[in-house]
Design goal:
The chain is α+β, with helices and mostly antiparallel strands. It has helices at 13-26, 38-43, 45-51, 101-115, 131-139, and strands spanning 4-7, 53-59, 62-70, 84-92, 121-126, 143-144, 162-167. The protein has a 7-stranded mixed beta sheet with strand order 1-2-3-4-5-7-6.
Length: 168
């Protein structure tokens, strides 16, 4: 099975939003489950696509998953600083996992970051429990940068996102 990585098309936004929301819910990544406010952000691919580059992994005409690539200084950036691009919302449909789609999407983001003038680093945030994603990042040369770990909900003590970076 050949996996193709390309920009998401508007007709795929609903599918990718559903895959992303389902992946986060199914993997227990939303602290407030179905009532988590972040769920709406995960589903709103159109909003992301208007502010960043949304990529999909497709095989045999089926969207397997996607990722949001945020060039340096983009409005979707959470932790990227000057000279950095960011990866956000990597998600693969549960039935499509372990087929290389996640790694292919991350590799595509690395290539895009290298093509951004002045970009010297690609960064991302991840949850402690996203171990399969951590293995992909580490295999591709990303390293932990614990000094950049952060809490997106400071009023909730037990939420901490781990930061990774790849020097380009």
């Amino acid at each position: 099975m050949d996996i193709m990585i390309r920009p998401a098309e508007p007709g795929e936004y609903g599918t990718l939003g559903g895959i992303t929301a389902e992946a986060y819910l199914r993997d227990g990544l939303l602290d407030f489950g179905e009532s988590d406010a972040y769920l709406a952000e995960l589903r709103d691919v159109g909003k992301r696509a208007a502010a960043a580059e949304v990529l999909v992994a497709v095989a045999d005409g089926t969207v397997l998953g996607g990722v949001t690539f945020v060039p340096a200084g983009g409005p979707m950036a959470e932790i990227a600083g000057p000279g950095e691009a960011e990866i956000r919302m990597l998600a693969i449909a549960p039935e499509a996992r372990r087929r290389g789609a996640g790694e292919a999407l991350v590799r595509a983001c690395v290539e895009r970051a290298r093509a951004v003038p002045g970009c010297v680093r690609l960064v991302l945030s991840t949850q402690r429990t996203m171990r399969a994603a951590h293995r992909i990042y580490e295999r591709l040369g990303f390293v932990r940068v614990p000094e950049r770990d952060w809490n997106p909900l400071p009023h909730v003590d037990d939420i901490m996102l781990l930061a990774y970076a790849l020097t380009l």
